[in-house]
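Could you help me review a protein record that somebody else here produced? My question to you is simply how this chain folds and whether the tokens agree. Thanks in advance; the entry in question is below:
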Amino acid sequence: MTTQGNGLHTRVLDILGLEIAAGEHQPGQVLRTDELARRFDVSRTVVREVVRVLESMHLVESRRRVGVTVRPTEAWNVYDPQVIRWRLAGADRPRQLRSLTVLRSAIEPVAAGLAARNATPEQCAALTECALGMVATSRGRQLEGYLEHDITFHRIVLDASGNEMFARLGDVVAEILAGRTHHHVMFEDPDPAAVTLHVRVAEAVREGDADAAERLTKEIAVGALHELDVLAP
């Protein structure tokens, strides 16, 4: 595809994905390729490419002589980072954030405990560097800078666990953290207690203290849930 084609593809995909995630197209509703092409003023080729992506996420199903049918929520690939991004952009954001944060609370503490056992010296150093970066950007409304360090911190923990299933959740956690920041479900400056906990997790991983790493990471998750009670009830 040309650069222009890629731009059209992205635009149509984002609009349709957001609409489906928001429930504007109900399960069972049929979307016609020719109607979509007219609506977005794009070729049928672009529409077909968009549909293929939505099919890969299990948001729709394309059948010959039927059209593109919207699938029920239960069929969606809810772990797809783009699906998470679309769902967090909608009115159901508070419930989605809570669901995703509960998922984190179940996984990340175990991953941190494993990281304390398995992390390489390089991973320990990178984790400490990220924690210090979070401290440095935790004041003065530097949320984008803080977010960058926060995402990298949690990716390292998941990778350092040595469990490939946990490691694959890095993009999911990144979308959760980005969604909280970009949809203003964060205080203007991060909670100082949460920042300190990240520093202590890095120390526990570096020292090989699996129990402390798991407990402290659990505290981070509990704190995130408490923040949602305040900011996204």
Remarks:
- The first strand starts at residue 30 and ends at 31.
- Residues 1-5 have pLDDT under 50 and may be disordered.
- Residues 14 and 22 are 12 Å apart (CA to CA).
- The two ends are 44 Å apart (CA to CA).
